[in-house]
Design a protein that fits this description.
Helices cover 35% and strands 25% of the residues. By secondary structure, the chain is α/β, with parallel strands linked by helices. The protein has two domains: 115 residues, 2-Layer Sandwich (ornithine cyclodeaminase, domain 1); 182 residues, Rossmann fold (3-Layer(aba) Sandwich), CATH 3.40.50. The strands form two sheets. The chain has an eight-stranded parallel β-sheet with strand order 9-8-7-10-11-14-12-13. A six-stranded mixed β-sheet has the order 1-6-5-4-3-2. A hairpin with a 3-residue loop joins strand 2 and strand 3. Helix 3 runs parallel beside helix 4. The two termini are 18 Å apart. Keywords: Signal.
């Protein structure tokens, strides 16, 4: 693979933003890609409570694979929690085309998936109030994604790390909207709630979320970890990337199902349903809208292809 082009974080940020990445995801779905047929990720435990993930995908003239690491102890070492690389291949020949920074790809594609969901579910026509949980790269990426899709009247940052929350709120103010730190109770007045944390237990009381508000949860792909509670899931219209993936990995849904609060048929629809117009614009009326993302290999491939073609 000598001489294979490499795309680092700076180059990727220069050629593609969250809205364009969301466009790439939508285009892949419109071209017939079926997320239900996407192979499940492989995962093995590594020393130090870490996890090594392997995520292959193939579609049209391209194939690719992401090797990603999740190292919970890295932030204390001054290192990113998510690591890895993405190898993009020519589909027919499987010849390597490019090597991409896997952590930067994940930091772009996850907010892009959420942006695509917000495009179809978030209220339109007025500035929205956002409550944002988390202070890591995904929180920053999701702030950019929300701003790419909707006008924001206010951003409220909620996090255990007070200094990190203040920094993110200050950053949000440089982008236009008013911003401050807050508490989980602020979800009561939110139009959008974005959960971008490593939490294993619910972040807020789901009974507080208003009908019509949109909650996006992206923090975990583990069946026993969740950011939202049973009360919210039970009363919400639930959207996912893939039914099969969600029922395999989404603790936000699997925990309530294990409690007997919901059944597997509780899922309202998928991202593909929203893009294809098979569900009403703006989601179900009279209840909260919950989009639960676990992250899938087809998304990495679609965004990697868009990055590669934009950089050529």
């Amino acid at each position: 693979m000598t001489g294979i082009p490499q795309l680092g974080a700076a180059a990727m940020a220069a050629v593609l933003g969250p809205a364009a990445a969301a466009d790439a995801l939508a285009a892949a779905l419109r071209c017939g890609l079926d997320p239900e047929s996407c192979p499940p990720r492989s995962a093995i435990a590594v020393p130090g409570d870490g996890e090594l993930l392997l995520m292959p995908a193939a579609s049209g003239p391209y194939a690719g694979v992401k090797i990603a690491g999740v190292a919970p102890g890295n932030p204390a070492r001054g290192l990113p929690r998510i690591t890895g690389s993405y190898l993009l291949l020519d589909g027919p020949t499987l010849r390597p085309l490019a090597l991409l920074d896997g952590a930067a790809l994940t930091a772009l594609r996850t907010p892009a998936v959420s942006a695509l969901a917000l495009r179809h579910l978030a209220p339109a026509g007025r500035p929205l109030r956002l409550v944002l949980f988390g202070t890591g790269p995904q929180a920053y990426g999701h702030l950019a994604a929300a701003l790419a899709e909707r006008e924001l009247a206010e951003v409220v940052v909620v996090a255990r790390n007070r200094e990190g929350a203040e920094r993110l709120a200050a950053h949000a103010r440089t982008l236009g909207p008013a911003a401050r730190t807050g508490t989980p109770q602020d979800v009561a007045d939110a139009d959008l709630v974005l959960c971008c944390t490593t939490a294993r237990e619910p972040l807020f009381d789901g009974r507080l979320v208003r009908p019509g508000a949109v909650v996006v949860a992206v923090g975990s792909h583990e069946p026993t970890a969740r950011e939202t509670d049973t009360a919210l899931v039970r009363r919400a219209a639930v959207y996912v990337e893939s039914r099969a993936a969600a029922l395999r990995e989404a603790g936000d849904l699997l925990v309530p199902e294990a409690e007997g609060a919901i059944g597997p048929g509780h899922i309202t629809g998928t991202l593909a349903d929203l893009v294809a117009g098979r569900l009403p614009a703006g989601g179900e009326r009279g209840c909260p809208q919950l989009f639960k993302s676990v992250g899938m290999a087809w998304e990495d491939l679609a965004v990697a292809v868009a990055l590669y073609e934009a950089d050529r």
